[in-house]
Design goal:
Radius of gyration: 17 Å
Shape: elongated
Distance between the termini: 42 Å
Strand content: under 5%
Helix content: over 70%
Number of helices: 6
Structural class: mainly alpha
């Protein structure tokens, strides 16, 4: 998504892509048994870190595609849009990680129930 939002997909359109990414990622977390919730949070945070790095590196193309962000958003640190991108990105990463952890936990309940039923037969 970092590549997409930097070069051809606006941040307003990515809302339609993230649910699919979240469900697929949650499935893979749930399939590999473990601490679903903590793995979801860590995956969300790590994902936001690399997306933030990519957005900062390709800042000019990212802002050219998302020019309304600089004008319409009320940034906490006025004049430091790159720093704001990182701060907001990490917050979004934490929130999406919590959602991903909950999804992975729910999918894990279904996947593990199916695996347990298959092994007992």
């Amino acid at each position: 998504m970092a590549v997409a939002t930097s070069f051809f997909l606006s941040v307003h359109s990515e809302v339609y892509v993230w649910p699919f990414i979240m469900i697929i990622t949650a499935y893979f977390i749930a399939k590999n048994r473990g601490n679903y919730f903590s793995h979801g949070i860590l995956t969300g945070l790590l994902n936001s870190i690399w997306i933030d790095i990519f957005h900062v590196i390709f800042f000019t193309s990212f802002m050219a595609l998302n020019a309304d962000m600089a004008d319409k958003w009320h940034w906490p640190l006025a004049g430091h849009i790159r720093l704001n991108l990182v701060i907001v990105g990490l917050c979004i990463g934490l929130i999406s990680g919590i959602v991903l952890g909950i999804l992975a936990w729910l999918i894990g309940l279904v996947v593990n129930k199916k695996q347990a039923a298959t092994t007992t037969e």
